[in-house]
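> forwarded from #structure-qc
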């Protein structure tokens, strides 16, 4: 008997969209090994020369002109990608999408980014007969995700569902599944077993993440955190920003036995397990991974738009706090040095998480919808 196939389409505009696609794919296979999954960053796959150039230009815009990104986000907030835009995207970048789908013969397509979602919606209007699930990878519902051709929306919270139904999307077409995380985040590892893998000591530990593109916080506060290095173990994870990593490694303030400066790593799950506090940008994926681990979070410099909404959700839900000054650092760095208080706080977050989020729910939901 032919195995069922799930095609997951994403784009490289931020690492979270593709991470969500891979997390869902791995989760599906772990729950049902008979399902075949394939993840494709569609633009890069179809245009391996032009695609990376466009993404690079987008990165520069986000890092250098975040206010412009916010303005565009808000102006288009309630608007779907119109048919002319969908046609232009298809003609310029995605002309071979139908051929790819025809070759792979998926039983189901999941899109984790609005652009491939719009392209597949256009193909469905032209006769493509494959169910399309749209996984919204933030804690907001921007209009560019929406289209009449979407079979089912998979969303992070009931609040996002309400935003979609308020726009006229039937409630039956929206399912609250949470954002999927890799199965590594479904489980908790023992600190004492993991610490030697990273040459870490059994002491209060803070994980500072710069995001998938390595966009870090201001030098002043990074150095202020390092000033705690005698009593707090600090793990700086700067992502793909190798220049930032080299700069930090050359700075004497970070040359200390209790400070680790890491580049890109696939061990974030373990690093969260050995840490008592996460300092991060409020990207939908990283926040959800932190939520799944029940680690308290401090959020810095949200990009105007979806990151602001993500931050608002997690702060209001009690899973994190905005990092607004050195006073915030002093408060939390002192708190995690009190073992009972720190352990109890994490237990409280895990209990709250269990009421609001099941890390396996999205994978399970897709399997149930395929039956």
């Amino acid at each position: 008997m032919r195995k069922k196939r799930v095609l997951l389409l994403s784009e490289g505009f931020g690492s979270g969209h593709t991470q969500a696609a891979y997390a869902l794919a791995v989760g599906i296979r772990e729950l049902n090994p008979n399902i075949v999954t394939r993840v494709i960053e569609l633009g890069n796959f179809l245009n391996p020369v032009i695609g990376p150039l466009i993404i690079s230009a987008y990165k520069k815009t986000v890092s250098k002109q975040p206010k412009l990104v916010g303005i565009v986000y808000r102006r288009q907030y309630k608007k779907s990608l119109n048919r002319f835009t969908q046609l232009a995207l298809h003609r310029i970048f995605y002309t071979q999408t139908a051929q790819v789908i025809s070759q792979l013969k998926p039983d189901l397509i999941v899109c984790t980014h609005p652009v491939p979602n719009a392209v597949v919606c256009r193909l469905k209007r032209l006769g493509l007969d494959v169910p399309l699930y749209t996984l919204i990878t933030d804690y907001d519902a921007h209009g560019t995700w929406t289209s009449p051709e979407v079979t089912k929306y998979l969303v992070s919270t009931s609040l996002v569902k309400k935003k979609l139904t308020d726009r006229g999307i039937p409630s039956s077409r929206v399912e609250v599944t949470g954002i999927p995380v890799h199965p590594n985040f479904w489980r908790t590892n023992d600190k004492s077993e993991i610490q030697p893998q990273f040459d870490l000591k059994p002491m209060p530990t803070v994980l500072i993440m710069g995001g998938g593109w390595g966009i870090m916080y201001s030098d002043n506060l990074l150095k202020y955190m390092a000033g705690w290095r005698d009593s707090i173990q600090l793990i700086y994870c700067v992502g793909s920003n190798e220049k930032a990593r080299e700069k930090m490694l050359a700075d004497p303030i970070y040359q200390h036995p209790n400070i680790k400066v890491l580049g890109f790593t696939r061990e974030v799950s373990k690093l969260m397990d050995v840490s008592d506090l996460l300092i991060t940008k409020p990207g939908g994926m990283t926040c959800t991974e932190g939520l799944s681990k029940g680690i308290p979070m401090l959020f810095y410099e949200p990009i105007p738009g979806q990151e602001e909404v993500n931050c608002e959700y997690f702060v209001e839900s009690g899973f994190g706090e905005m990092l607004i000054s050195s006073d915030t650092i002093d408060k939390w760095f002192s708190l995690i040095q009190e073992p009972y208080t720190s352990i109890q706080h994490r237990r409280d977050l895990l209990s709250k998480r269990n009421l609001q989020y099941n890390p396996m729910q999205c994978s399970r939901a897709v399997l149930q919808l395929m039956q």
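QC bot note: The two ends are 15 Å apart (CA to CA). The chain is about 45% helix and 15% strand.
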